Amino acid sequence: MENKMFCFQCQETAKCQGCTIVGVCGKKPEVALMQDLLVYATKGLAAVAYELNEEGAEVPMALDRLVCANLFATITNANFDLEAITSRVEDTLRASSSLVEQVKDKSKLPAAALWNDKRENFATKAASDEVGVLSTKDEDKRSLRELITYGLKGLAAYLHHASVLGYEDADIYAFMEEGLTKLLDDSLDVNELVALTLKTGDFGVKGMALLDKANTETYGNPEITKVDLGVRKNPGILVSGHDLKDLEQLLEQTQGSGVDVYTHGEMLAAHYYPKFKKYENFAGNYGNAWWKQKEEFEAFAGPVLMTTNCIVPPNDSYKDRLWTTGATGYPGCRKITADEKGRKDFSAIIAQAKKCQPPKELEKGEIVGGFAHEQVFALADKVVEAVKSGAIKKFVVMAGCDGRQKSREYYAEFAKALPKDTVILTAGCAKYKYIKLGLGDIGGIPRVLDAGQCNDSYSLALIALKLKEVFGLDDVNELPIVYNIAWYEQKAVIVLLALLALGVKNIHLGPTLPAFLSPNVAKLLVENFGIGTISTVEDDIKSMIG
Q1: Is residue 394 a contact partner of residue 340, using CB atoms and an 8 Å limit?
Q2: Which residues pair with 69 in a beta bridge?
Q3: Which of 168, 202, 482, 539 supports an S-S bond with 544, CB 3.0-4.6 Å?
């Protein structure tokens, strides 16, 4: 049977091979094809920008932002709205056609840069052999091209978050466009694509550093914080996703309204930033990781604001309470857009919240987090002494993503099976598998140190590099640190490439290796970087911890 679509960018893709009828995420084939077309058109736009840069012309940053926003919209679970994606294709073609005339030597432009058409022809183009993953026939080239593409999607998300806070880097933008352009170049061989993959990791480190700077200079360095898991008596708004600027604006606009604001999923990390602690109506964290949202959004009773990817197709019972903004979209759900100055008007969602019942309590207790790099550096003497005394024998990086598959229970069981002289370093929503297990502490140092969102994975790299310096080691791989990382979507891909760029080896990736890694590319990663997958908890404890 002919494929209606083909997508294998997330860990849960069908049969660990690829979704061909409908996305496991809920993405319909016509949306998947239009997202493929958006990526194709965005590569074309990037090629125009790259050639203009090569010719010494100035490319407006608005174009750079458009490239990032487009890629962000195609990340898993971000945007399911066919109309919104189609409009993005139109906007991209308009931007490209307005710039292509400025290119002096148009013979250097690939076909994607010169393509322009009407909306009614988009579906035919999207289904053509020129567009989509399978347009690259060579399996290994396809594998590397998609690995780079997904890394660039993750990088685009980080750059978007930094941009809305006023932090941008022309060099990183220029690399984004260079990388996307080279993905259209059929003359590049496997070795050249491997080099581009590693270069993507280098710029992943720079992008993560830029976002870290944006967040910490805007909101302060995260600090040890106890976050309430219960509920209050007021109606509330639940904020999910990752965008701190959206949360800040919502908190400002809800002051004195009688509406409380709660975080969900990866927005938990907002509680760790000093600047957010001044808001009396910033209530606490509600629920768990993204995949439990159907039951948790139902119970919340008030409106939910999705600021970034992590949408699960909603039940009709709460669909009228689900709002989207930024890169996100879902048909039938209302969307809040920013004005020219980046301000968003949340008055409509606040008005809806006032008419709703308070959230139903799911649990009591608290989560302790805020162990980003500066907070851990402040504890460095205590940590070093614990290592030297033998109280801490090993650190285990268990960052990454959570997911709905039963195989992911492995991470909870692995955490429980770890010896009591080990400390978990985490970031991302994978932490929901073990942060509520009550794993205790070592001499006052919690055994689960949460740095924050997947966006904050840079902290884990800085902590490793700081420990390397403190212990006077030549190689970060000499540290008593092992890596057992759960991945799900494309931001995890850029984190992986960034870690490889920093020289980290022997990373265990699970629950499965990506479907987009061909056997030869997987072999290359194993032989050069020691990338491995997981097996059983018992065997992995023996091999990783000893």
Answers
A1: no
A2: none
A3: 482
